[in-house]
Amino acid sequence: MQARLEKQRLRAIFDLWLDHNTYENLPFTPLKEMAEIRFQVPITDTIVYCGAIDLLAQMKSTGHAVVVDIKTTRSMNRRWLRKWAMDTQVSGYVYAAKQHMPQVLGMIIGVIELPDPKVSKSKCKVHGVPYTECDLFHANFHWIGPILRSDAQLESWRRTMVQQARRYSSLHKKALDCKGKKGIENVLKLPQEGMFTEIEYVNSCVSCELSNFCEADRPTHMASNYLAHQPWFCFPEMIKDMPNPLAQGEPNA
Ligand code: SF4
Ligand SMILES: [Zn+2]
């Protein structure tokens, strides 16, 4: 367990976040019964887009309906904050929410920083006490957005997503049955494309859960040491089955 994720420390930081984000201080009004929405949105006859939306809400400043997403990160640096403006999850969740509530225009992201604990005994210039005493107050909180998505952007996301889903499906079939052979050894026939998507120091492999397996040159004879069998499951509820609180006029938060 990393020290920064120790249970008591997490609880203390989340308590601070709640103190900062009282109902009055939130930039939006939560919509009633619109928290933790698991959705499945049919995209084509064979592709269903699934996810879980933290919350739907209405911005206090503009009245826009938005998806609210809460994220944690070790370090809330400028590059990390900026990446969400062009993030595919933002487009996908706005697309999904819009199928249920057409008024949704974008997403607002609440960020909770969970940094490594400060161990230095030297005095903090901000708080005037040793860093070990003000450590928790160095966890930053921030709201990103709302990040808006136009209809054209959402349609572009949908088209790209369909292309990618078809590609992944064909790779999956290839891995299942390659030249008559069946089994895990077929993954060796698949390209390691994550290695080609480097953006400065961030690439797909760094955050990929298969990275240990790939780093070891995909030792298929020891696959069970690296990989866990986790069958994919589908969320049971359909977002379309949920009521649209904005359809009746005022939000009933
Ligand atoms: S670590 Fe992940 S992203 Fe990188 S090549 Fe392997 S499977 Fe692809
Ligand atoms: Zn301090």
In a few lines, what is going on in this structure?
By secondary structure, this protein is α+β, with helices and mostly antiparallel strands. It has helices at 7-20, 78-82, 88-100, 131-134, 151-176, 211-215, 223-226; strands at 28-42, 48-59, 65-73, 104-113, 141-148.
Structural commentary:
With 253 residues, the protein is of the alpha+beta class. The protein has a domain at 3-158 and 236-248. It contains 7 helices and 5 strands. The protein has helices at residues 7-20, 78-82, 88-100, 131-134, 151-176, 211-215, 223-226, and strands at 28-42, 48-59, 65-73, 104-113, 141-148. It has a 5-stranded mixed sheet, with helices on both faces. A hairpin with a 5-residue loop joins β2 (48-59) and β3 (65-73). α3 crosses α5 (151-176). The radius of gyration is 22 Å and the shape is flat. The model is unreliable at 248-253 (pLDDT under 50). It binds iron/sulfur cluster (SF4) and zinc ion (ZN). Zinc ion is lined by residues 124, 126-127, 131, 134, 137-138.
The helical percent reads 25-40%
Which structural class do the helices and strands define? alpha+beta
- Total DSSP E strands: 5
Query: How much is the average pLDDT?
Result: 86
- Strands of the widest sheet, in order across it, are 1-2-3-4-5
Please give the count of helices. 7
How much of the sequence is in beta strands? 15-25%
Q: Helix-strand pattern, N to C?
A: HEEEHHEHEHHH
Let me know the largest β-sheet: 5 strands, mixed
Ligand species: iron/sulfur cluster, zinc ion
> Measured on Cα atoms, how large is the radius of gyration?
22 Å
- Poorly predicted ranges: 248-253
Beginning-to-end CA distance, first to last residue: 38 Å
Coarse morphology: flat
